[in-house]
Amino acid sequence: MSIPLAEYEVIVGSSTLAQLRRLGERLAGLRVVHVSSTREMGGVAEKLEWMVPHLRDVGVDASWEVVHGDPLFFDITKAINNGLQGESVDLSKADWRIYQDVNEMNAGRLRPLLEDADIVVIHNPQPAGLLNFCPNRKGRWIWRAHIDISRQFRAVGRVFRTFVENYDASVFSMAEFAQPLPHPQFLIPPSIDPLSEKNRDLDPAELSSIRAEFGLDPDRPLIVQIARFDRFKDPMGVIKAYRLVRKATHVQLVLAGAGATNDLEGKAVLKDVLAAAAGDPDIHVLLLPMDAHKTINALQRLADIILRKSTREGFGLTVAEGMWKGKPVIGGDAGGIRLQVVNYHTGFLVCTPEGAAHRIRYLLHHRERISEMGGVAREFVRSNFLVTRQLRECLTLFFAIRSGEKSRTFQV
Amino acid sequence: MKTFEVMDCALLMRMSGLAPAMNLRELRDRIAACGENVLYHHFCETTLRPTFDDPDYRNDFAAWTRLYLRDRVLAERLGIIDPYAFGTIEELRDAVLDIIDDRLGEVAMIPWVRLGDGFLFKEAITVIFDTGERIRDPRELAPAILRMTDGSIYYHFVEALRRPPVGKDDFSVWLLGAGDVYGQLIRSLGAIDFYFYSLARLRKEISLALTIAEVA
């Protein structure tokens, strides 16, 4: 269920909302169609669930469509996704043919809407092939990449490029994710929704209930890492850091992640983590359902310190989620964590379990720094990583793409 | 005296198309070749894009040199550059190149960075729009400034320095329209050393300067 934009005023202030409405007024009636692969779980769906209603709220005629396909199509697009993110995958000509055919079939259904739209935003690789089947398109088409394609598997990247190079622009979450393409490449970092179930304020009773549910001791420090069970999130490194801290301080550790049932590698990592944690009642390894937003929210709020000790990372938006709850974050010096954790101000960047342990001990011995850094972290998120900032940049993108303006500044 | 039209702006970053710089010599060569908008972005637009309010260095070249090239000497020399002290972006470019060339002459090895840590050259597009708000009396200016967005502060006080009349912020230009009456206010605005302020802090400083000058 979408939240009216007006409800964000208490968080970001009236001038920020007025700015969004003024930008929206100048785009009133602009027909924008977003196309993604699903309305169900996943980062893109979560984003469009708030983005489309907010765009409509400020005057843009926004809508959201999804492509249909059989399981084989989605297996192929998952392989394309993985290949674009660097995994060596085997995609045959027949697979690419199926990718095109399903996009063509969807174009048959969506063509009138897409060809008539002022702006079409295609999210991720699954629907990217639509453009080639909309030859009479009137508007501008944007490919929105939510994934890191900077180190793509060449065989996949080479073919996929032919599907996106004719777009009018592309958008990436970070400069590091971008690839050279023959059109403008814009940068819009992701954001968190402060009013969503994952980030809204929780009352003390809700926190106590979740603390009790997982048997957490309210009188001892709690370290929390929220991340799926993946080697790049370094859960074993987190356990090592915990054990180093534990020699001096009786801390508790929560390693919590949502798991997909078909994630074989994730299962293997989880097995290793459970084995490493066995026999220690103060290590809580939690495999949560994909929709355990309130539980994640509560665990972040119950934490004294939040970890995100990744060795490789996309954007790592749980860092911003933790900071929004007023907690310092000790993060791996990788990917988007670098944009969120400002060393010594909103947390610490570390490279090793030893580094993480060192910073945890420092903070536990300087409790006042936890609240100081947490306060700075929350304000940093308020200014930079909330949905209102992303909405503003999205509106700015529409101006830029609609006008085709190449100068540095232009008035609307 | 004309009314003051409050404008606002919103910035969107984009890639410049230049290859990343993986060492100091590449940084030097890319800075020599890049467009003015790229230099302007990395020196002047850093406060308007998503950023930390209190960074070690306000320009991206100094920050990257410190964090990834790990050359503290060069970072300090680049970090103190005030881009608004130069009449044109080309003069700024020359000054930056002089500093880097000097450093290249001092170091025994060209400093380099790991894959993934290269300097990524960006630029930005800024959309400017009228808020519809108007200020009719200079006494309304200080409280109005406190209500302005970061975009408005940037547009009227920072970005304005590059528009004719070059080197003047919009508030001062407006006050000048009343002749010598507001000389004290204009001097107060001119005395703000804004380059190291976040836009939120700058908003407070401008309002405070105007309030103090009015009282005086």
Query: In terms of structural class, how would the helical and strand content of chain B be classed?
Result: alpha+beta
Tell me, briefly, the overall form of chain B: elongated
Oligomer: heterodimer
Q: Biggest sheet of chain A, open or closed, and with what strands and sense?
A: 6 strands, parallel
Model description:
The complex is a heterodimer of chains A (412) and B (216). With 412 residues, chain A is of the alpha/beta class. Chain A has two domains: 5-191 and 386-403, Glycogen Phosphorylase B (Rossmann fold, 3-Layer(aba) Sandwich), CATH 3.40.50; 204-384, Glycogen Phosphorylase B (Rossmann fold), CATH 3.40.50. Helices cover 45% and strands 15% of the residues of chain A. In chain A, helix 7 crosses helix 10 (293-302) and helix 11 crosses helix 14. Chain B is α+β, with helices and mostly antiparallel strands and 216 residues long. Chain B has two domains: 4-9 and 132-215; 18-120, no CATH class. Chain B has ten helices and two strands, in the order E-H-H-H-H-H-E-H-H-H-H-H. In chain B, helix 4 (72-79) runs antiparallel to helix 5 and helix 6 packs antiparallel against helix 10 (199-215). At the A-B interface, helix 2, strand 6, helix 14, helix 15 and strand 13 of A face strand 1 and strand 2 of B.
Features:
heterodimer; A: alpha/beta; Rossmann fold; six-stranded parallel β-sheet; B: 216 residues; alpha+beta; 2 domains; two-stranded antiparallel ribbon; 10 helices; 48% helix; elongated
